[in-house]
Every structure is written in structure tokens, then in C-alpha cells.
Write a structure and sequence with these properties.
CATH class of chain B: Alpha Beta
CATH architecture of chain B: 3-Layer(aba) Sandwich
Strand content of chain A: 15-25%
Helix content of chain B: 25-40%
Distance between the termini of chain B: 46 Å
Radius of gyration of chain B: 19 Å
Oligomer: heterodimer
Low-confidence stretches of chain A: 19-39, 181-275, 461-465
Shape of chain A: extended
Number of strands of chain B: 14
Distance between the termini of chain A: 67 Å
Structural class of chain B: alpha/beta
Mean pLDDT of chain B: 80
Largest interface: A-B, 61 and 62 residues
Number of domains of chain B: 1
Largest sheet of chain A: 6 strands, antiparallel, barrel
CATH superfamily of chain B: P-loop containing nucleotide triphosphate hydrolases
Strand content of chain B: 25-35%
Number of helices of chain B: 7
Chain lengths: 618, 284
């Protein structure tokens, strides 16, 4: 729904640009418009460097009305419209702001994705499976989503369709359409697919055996076995009348409008009479609605194929040969014959509880209190199911449509409310400096994922899990405050190269029972190993004499005793083969400090081998 | 006079109440250093100790002594020793190395390494770990002094250690002795290593001199030759690494003198003292 995202976003976030380019009398309600005479009607354009020229890449409505268009050179635009306000496009900023906006939409549906085929901003996709009844139906939901965006001052349009492709097409070229609307409006039952043949657009779609969500089409070469009982629609589709003329959008120019689109994978067909037949709805739309690239659109237009409906009866082999596989793929995706996965931006929660605030809250203490309360509620929910969760997410929705997302992990499944609350408290404490409630927080949601069964027996400490449990909690708390890679254990590995013989890995109290092969090496090994060996200056007898003197960190050492060399060759079967052989020496200076040194390379291998200090003995 | 002494006694009693100690003069068992049969001094659980080495270059000896203390605290109920270090310090003093620990006689599986970003986080983690009743010992590798690690911070740690009977150790380096609420302060200095049986030129088992700078020692003086009292009246132990832990090092060759002024019998020449002073100013 956001065709003018780049300019709208800038206008919202740059006070100098606020209220720019608004037509008289159509200033969006609620958006604070700074009344500035003379500036008010100035169009805003964004340009970028393309093919060694500055070209327009985004314009607002006023600019478009002034006759400017995308791809025009900046100097031309300035000549046509001298009072235009031009800014260089910052795509990263726009994408970041759009991602925030997308996250905020999690208050409508848990699955929100950005369709970034062309640009990383502009198209927002919500999976509203089983959600719409909470908002009073699909129509009301769509109205709400579009309405509040419009309220923020963004131009937005939307549509609801059973597949991702169709939703995209409709929201761009026929905004407001709700395809495949159900009559009953009942909550979809999340029953598992009856067989392995589900063609649901998302994994979470409800699907009953024997029903067909999408009308099947008499496309040549299509597997008729999948058409099932829907074949009766075929004649409807082919005999569609010519599409209505004068489509509101500038079709065919290759430019596609950005859109937010909601798609309801569970929209049952409910008969062709409903007017929600996807194929019918798509038929009059221009082919650009299929998310094709500009070349394909031009080629299709040259062949006289301007509408999607004109593609329906064509031979697939011919289309494939002439326009490439993407055309068929997009067509199938739009019609729901081919799966298209939505990649949700945020983790999809398995259980969640949330709390909405009548008045926005701002204090971090209030947030912590709410988290405690929510974790008790979530814990109750998990207990009722006999499950526990390992990963917990906290989403803090601010009134200025931004979302803060925090995540903590437990070493193993838990449903202990105080533990969960404490982990979040640690985590929040860590970012007190960055905590910014903005204009207030309107909703807090606590989600649990990686849910697994957790029976009472797992929780009692009589079965010998007591200390592991305590330690797990300690590590959880530390990891939640210090970061995931902070609590580590030493894992022995099978390697001769000293730095490869041990590795740090995240620690869990319940380590596997089998003792890893940790055979003691016959040769000396230091207690402390420097992560990076440090180069030292060494005086030693050539070729294999032990070091006699060393300068390390600008301090000289004289060695009294030394043992070595311990020769360690390169592991040729590992990456990094072709390195030099090392000769290790354990040396003790005249004050009893003991160091582990090595010479990188033998004198036969290298002209002047370098020496390094690698560790300190106890 | 008697009135005055009464007042002083009352004050002492109230301070003792605050301090939660058995008494200033007669410290409880936890507040003293016991000497094990082998000859190693051993701190009790529920105490905070500071292990000082003169420079960061000596970090190995301090770590070795701490590990041996921690090894004695390991049990079935307390199977883990935590080692805490700041990330930025890892290159300075090195990270614990599994094969080296194994060779030293410490099971690497029993060691958990916690790497923090700041000293505040490190102190927080130490406190948190002290509260866990399944942690045998906590070794905080702090290194040089920090303003965050002041008397208040060490007091917090000390109280925490006492109430959860945890063994806390701070590895420090440098010659400054800041005010600290630690019950014990040890100074660890490496000595020339022991003789190896078949190769006189090779470094042998670790040897060190451990001086008790602060805190009381329990019992009478142990066997002669392995320790005693230095010129300042501080107890010291000369220890040698063996497979069963640190043991008293009976035969003390003349060359094995500690190098710094703390326990050194040898007077420093002028040039040596100047060099020492330079180093001090660099590390302070």
C-alpha cells in the first residue's frame, strides 16, 4: 500500500520537508503540517546516480502532477519544474525505516514480510490466516491497515488475496480488492492438510481435503490431476469479456507501484458466485502486475499480450520459449498453483501473551513490571499445556510505529516465570543507555518459541538434575546479560596444531556424557595461550638451538633453561596447508617465568624464520 | 579507665556485628589459611582472596596457584570452576588452554570461561556466580587495578562469598595494594623450576613462593625448609607442582630466591633497583 514510500518517509522524518507537496485541501489528517507559504506546493523528488547521470528514482504526487517521471535526469526535472526540492536517495535509510514499519505491523499479524524483489522497501505482506476475525473481518482489517498508514501520511493501498502473487498484483493495480472472501467469516480451523498434496500458499494455511482454493485453469501442459473438482471454472475464465478500459494506474510502463498486500491463505473458494475468483480478478490487470521485469513487460506488449487474462489460454511451451521461465512461474504463483514462501521478518511465535496499555508507558521500570506479569501469564499458558520453551522474545511496540525486539535463550526448555523475567531484566539492563521509549509504549508482547514438552518430572530436583538446573540458570543469566558468546567451555579437538587442539564453544551444564578424547600430550603445554601469537626477537643457535635471549613487549629476557624443539608440521589435509613447520620450545628465564615460543619455519624452509611467543606456563 | 575500655569493647562488638565476623582477634575457621598435609596453603570456602603477581608477565604462576586452590574445592555437588576475563585482556595474559590445563592436572571439562566486555560486567558475573551453590570456585582475572574495583566492590564480593560459602579469587598484577575487603591477599612469585630427572637444561615442574600478605594463618608453623616468615613477618610457603597438587618444596636451592623486594633476601644493586623502578612505573 505504499506507493510513495521514499518521499513520504522523508517528509515524515525530516522536519524541513514536512508538509511539502501537499495539495491544498488534502493534507492528511493527523500529520502535523507546518504551514509554509510558498513551500507548500513544492514537489519533492529523490535522485540517484544511474549510468553516470543523476536520475530521478522517486517522486511524490505533486511532482508527478507537474509532469515529472521516474528515470528523468535531474537537470531536466529542474528545468521543467524549477521550484522542485531534490534530495539524493538514501536507499539504506529508506529500507531501514521501512523495516521498522514492517515490524510494527506485527500487531496485526504475526507473519509480516517485506517483498523485496525490486527494492527493499515499499511492499509489505501480511499473512492474515486466522487473524481477520479479531479485527471484525477481512474488510475491516484491510481498512484498518490502510487507514492508519494514511493517517501517518503515507500513501497506501492494499488488497487481500489467497496467494502472495495475487495479493501483490491486486494491491498494486486494483487496490481495495478482497479476493476469495468467505461468506461465513468463521474462524478457520487449523486442521492439518488431509494429504500430502496441499497447495497452500503458506504452511499455516488451513486446508480441507476435497476443497480447492484456486480455480483450475485449462492451461496447456498443466497437470490435470491437480485440478480436482474445480474444472468447472475453466469456461468462465476463458470467456471473460475484455477488460475494462482506463485503468487508473499507469499500466504497462514497466513501473510497478509498491504495495502492501495482505494475503489470506485460508480464503476458501466459497463458490465462483462470490466474485472472489482470483483468476477473474487478475484477468483484467496489466501483465506488469505479475512482478515481471521491464523487458518481459515490453516484450509481452509487443506481442499484444497486455492483460493477464490473455495469458490464460496460451500454450505454456510457447510462453516459456519466448519469455523465459519466470513468466510462467509468476503466473502460477499469482494463481496459486505454485507455492511461494513468505519469509517472516520476525520469528513466528508459537505462544504469546500481550498487554495493551490504555495510556502509553515510558519508564523502563514499568516495562520490567509488565514483563514480570506477562511471563507469569505465559508460564501459566505453558503449564496448562505441559510444555516449556527455550527461546523467548519480547516485542515492545511504540506509538510511533517502531518495535524493539529482544530475545533471550534458555539452555533448556523452561516455564519458570521468575527465571524468564530475570533473563529479560538482565537483557534490558544491558541496554538501559539505548532504551528509548519515544512517545510511549502502547503494547508489550512476550512470545515463546522452540516449545517442547516439559513434564513435571523434568522439573523436580530429586532425579539428580538439581545442580545441572542451577548451573543452567546461572549460564542463562550470564548469557542474557553478557551476550550469547560470553559463557564458554573448552572443547578438545583432535589436532596437532596447538591453537586447533582446543576450541571455545557455548556452554551448557548438561554436556554429553561421553568424555571427549582429551588425551594428555607428552610434550609441555602452557596454561595460558595467547589468542594471537606475538612476534618476538630471539637470539638462538642455528639451526635447532633453543632460544638464549628474547625481547617481548620491549622487555628483554635471558633464558636459563630450555627444552625443545617439538616439531609440529602443517596439517596438509586441513585448510591452510602450505604453511611452515613450527619448532616449539619451552623456555625459562632467570626469574622462573616460563614461556612457550616457536620458530615459524625451519632454516631450510625459510631464509630468516620469525619467532613467536604463544603461551605462558604456570 | 574501665569505663573507657567498656566503651571500646562495646564499639568493637557493634562493629563486629556489622562485619558479621567471629571477631577481629580470633577469626573463624573460614577466615584463616590452613596448611594441607602436602604443604600447600589452602583458603576456606566463603572467602574472597586476592592473588597478586608483580607483573602481567607472571600471570601464569598466579593462575596456576588459583587453579590448584580451585581444584581442591571441586566436588560432586560443585562440579564447575568459573574463570572470568575481559575480552580486551585476553591477548595481554592469554586464555586458558585445554591441553595445558590437562597437563597441569586440572580437568578442562570442569572449567567454564566467561568473557565480559567491561570490568563492571565482570564483577556482576562474579557476584552472580558466587550466588550459585553449584560453583566450586570463581577466578576473576582482573589484572591491573580498576577504579570500578574499589573497596565497595570487593566488600560486596566478600559478603556475597560469605553468605553463599563460595570461593572467590581475584587475579591481580602490579605492586600497588589498593584498599580491599578481601579476606586474604597472597603474593605469588615464580621460582626457578625444579630439576628434571634426565635433562638438567630443561625446565622442570613449576615452583613458586606464595606469601600471605593479609589474613591469618591457622595452626603452627609447618615443616622447616618449605616456608617460614620473611623479614616483614609475613608467612610464606615455597611450593612445587606435583601430580597431586602443590606440595612443599623441601630442597630449596640457593638460586631459587624470589626476585622482588617482598620476600627477597638479596639486596638489590643500584642498577637493578633502577630497572625495577622503571618497570613499576610502566605497569602501575
Amino acid at each position: 500500500m505504499l506507493p510513495d514510500w521514499p518521499t513520504d518517509c522523508l517528509k515524515r522524518h525530516d522536519p524541513d520537508l514536512r508538509g511539502l507537496g501537499a495539495f491544498p485541501g488534502e493534507v492528511a489528517a493527523g500529520s502535523p503540517v507546518r504551514e509554509r507559504d510558498g513551500q507548500k506546493a513544492r514537489p519533492l523528488i529523490l535522485y540517484e546516480k544511474r549510468d553516470n547521470a543523476l536520475r530521478l528514482c522517486a517522486l511524490d504526487r505533486a511532482a508527478r502532477a507537474a509532469g515529472l517521471h521516474e528515470g528523468q535526469s535531474l537537470s531536466d526535472a529542474r528545468a521543467i519544474c524549477p521550484h522542485v526540492v531534490a534530495r539524493e536517495a538514501d536507499h539504506d535509510f529508506l529500507a531501514m525505516m521501512f523495516a521498522r514499519l514492517a515490524d510494527w505491523h506485527a500487531n496485526l499479524s504475526p507473519v509480516v514480510a517485506i517483498v523485496g524483489d525490486e527494492r527493499p522497501y515499499g511492499d509489505l505482506m501480511l499473512d492474515i490466516t486466522g487473524v481477520s476475525h479479531l479485527f471484525g473481518g477481512e474488510g475491516a482489517l484491510l481498512e484498518l491497515a490502510v487507514g492508519r498508514l494514511t493517517g501517518f501520511g503515507y500513501a497506501a493501498s492494499g488488497a487481500i488475496a489467497p496467494s502472495l502473487g495475487a495479493a501483490w498484483a491486486l494491491s498494486h493495480f486494483a487496490p481495495g480488492t478482497i479476493a476469495g472472501k468467505r461468506e461465513d467469516g468463521a474462524t478457520p480451523t487449523p486442521s492439518p492438510p488431509g494429504g500430502g498434496e496441499a497447495i497452500a500458499a503458506t504452511a499455516r494455511a488451513s486446508y480441507r481435503r476435497g476443497e480447492r482454493r484456486f480455480p483450475s485453469l485449462p492451461l496447456a501442459g498443466r497437470d490435470t490431476g491437480r485440478q480436482g473438482g474445480g474444472g468447472s471454472h475453466a469456461s468462465n475464465v476463458v470467456s471473460l469479456p475484455a477488460p475494462p478500459l482506463g485503468h487508473p494506474r499507469d499500466q504497462g510502463s514497466g513501473r510497478v507501484f509498491d504495495a502492501i498486500a495482505a494475503f489470506a491463505a485460508d480464503a476458501a473458494p466459497a463458490g465462483a458466485a462470490e466474485g472472489g475468483n482470483v483468476a477473474d480478478l487478475l484477468a483484467p490487470l496489466p501483465v506488469a502486475a505479475l512482478r515481471l521485469d521491464a523487458e518481459q513487460v515490453v516484450a509481452l506488449r509487443q506481442m499484444g499480450l497486455k492483460r493477464i487474462g490473455q495469458l490464460y489460454g496460451r500454450e505454456r511451451a510457447g510462453l516459456l520459449a519466448r519469455f523465459g521461465g519466470t513468466l510462467l512461474k509468476r503466473l502460477d504463483q499469482a494463481l496459486g498453483f505454485e507455492d511461494e514462501k513468505l519469509v517472516p521478518r520476525l520469528p513466528v511465535p508459537e505462544r504469546y501473551v500481550d498487554r495493551k496499555f490504555g495510556e502509553p508507558i515510558g519508564l523502563i521500570e514499568d516495562v520490567l513490571l509488565s514483563v514480570t506479569d506477562l511471563s507469569h501469564r505465559l508460564s501459566g499458558q505453558l503449564q496448562a499445556e505441559g510444555t516449556g520453551a527455550q527461546t523467548f522474545h519480547l516485542m515492545v511496540f511504540r506509538v510511533d510505529h517502531q518495535v524493539m525486539h529482544l530475545c533471550v535463550n534458555a539452555a533448556r526448555a523452561t516455564r519458570d516465570a521468575s527465571h524468564i523475567a530475570r533473563l529479560f531484566a538482565n537483557r534490558i539492563e544491558r541496554l538501559t543507555a539505548d532504551f528509548d521509549a519515544g512517545f510511549g509504549i502502547e503494547m508489550i508482547r512476550l512470545m515463546a518459541s522452540s516449545v517442547s514438552d516439559l513434564c513435571e518430572a523434568h522439573l523436580t530436583s530429586f532425579l539428580g538434575g538439581g545442580e545441572a538446573d542451577e548451573l543452567d540458570r546461572l549460564y542463562d543469566r550470564m548469557a542474557s546479560r553478557l551476550g550469547a558468546g560470553a559463557v564458554l567451555r573448552l572443547k578438545p579437538l583432535d589436532s596437532h596444531i596447538p591453537e586447533r587442539a582446543a576450541r571455545f564453544e557455548p556452554l551448557m551444564a548438561r554436556t554429553p556424557d561421553k568424555k571427549e578424547a582429551a588425551a594428555s600430550v607428552g610434550a609441555p603445554r602452557p596454561l595460558r595461550l595467547l589468542p594471537t601469537p606475538e612476534p618476538v626477537k630471539v637470539i638462538a643457535e642455528v639451526p635447532d638451538g633453543p632460544p638464549a635471549r628474547m625481547v617481548w613487549r620491549r622487555i628483554g629476557y635471558r633464558f636459563e633453561k630450555a627444552s625443545g624443539p617439538e616439531r609440529i608440521g602443517v596439517e596438509w589435509w586441513q585448510p591452510g596447508a602450505g604453511g611452515l613447520t613450527r619448532d616449539y620450545y619451552a623456555c625459562e628465564d632467570d626469574e622462573g617465568r616460563r614461556f612457550w615460543l616457536f620458530r615459524e619455519g625451519l632454516y631450510e624452509e625459510k631464509e630468516a624464520p620469525r619467532w613467536f611467543l604463544h603461551g605462558l606456563f604456570g | 579507665m574501665s569505663h573507657r575500655s567498656q566503651v571500646i569493647a562495646d564499639l568493637r562488638a557493634s562493629i563486629n556485628g556489622i562485619e558479621k565476623r567471629a571477631g577481629f582477634g580470633e577469626a573463624g575457621r573460614a577466615g584463616t589459611v590452613a596448611t594441607l598435609p602436602g604443604g600447600m596453603p589452602r583458603v576456606g570456602a566463603g572467602t574472597l582472596s586476592e592473588l597478586f603477581t608483580d607483573t602481567t608477565r607472571d600471570a601464569g604462576a598466579g593462575f596456576g596457584f588459583a587453579l590448584m586452590q580451585a581444584r581442591g574445592a571441586l566436588s560432586a555437588e560443585r562440579p564447575v570452576v568459573l574463570f572470568l576475563q575481559m575480552r580486551a585482556e585476553a591477548q595481554e595474559t592469554g586464555l586458558p588452554y585445554g591441553p595445558g590445563l590437562l597437563r597441569f592436572g586440572f580437568d578442562p571439562q570442569a572449567l567454564a570461561v566467561v568473557r565480559t566486555g567491561t570490568i563492571a560486567e565482570l564483577l556482576w558475573a562474579m557476584e552472580e556466580a558466587a550466588g550459585c551453590c553449584n560453583v566450586a570456585a570463581v577466578i576473576g582475572d582482573v589484572g591491573r587495578g580498576h577504579t570500578k574495583l574499589d573497596f565497595t566492590a570487593s566488600r560486596r564480593l566478600s559478603l556475597r562469598a560469605e553468605s553463599f560459602s563460595a570461593m572467590l579469587m581475584l587475579l591481580r598484577s602490579g605492586t600497588n595494594r589498593e584498599a580491599s575487603a578481601a579476606v586474604f591477599r597472597f603474593h605469588v612469585a615464580a621460582l626457578l623450576s625444579a630439576e628434571t630427572p634426565f635433562d638438567a637444561r630443561a625446565p622442570g615442574a613449576m615452583r613458586c613462593r606464595v606469601t600471605l600478605e593479609k589474613g591469618a594463618r591457622q595452626g603452627t608453623r609447618h615443616g622447616a625448609g618449605s616456608g617460614g616468615q620473611d623479614a616483614l613477618g609475613q608467612d610464606f610457603w615455597d611450593l612445587r607442582w606435583s601430580e597431586n597438587g602443590l606440595v612443599a618444596d623441601g630442597a630449596l636451592p640457593g638460586v631459587g630466591q624470589p626476585r622482588s623486594g617482598t620476600g627477597g633476601a638479596k639486596a638489590l644493586s643500584g642498577a637493578d633497583a633502577a630497572g625495577l623502578a622503571d618497570r613499576l612505573s610502566q605497569t602501575a
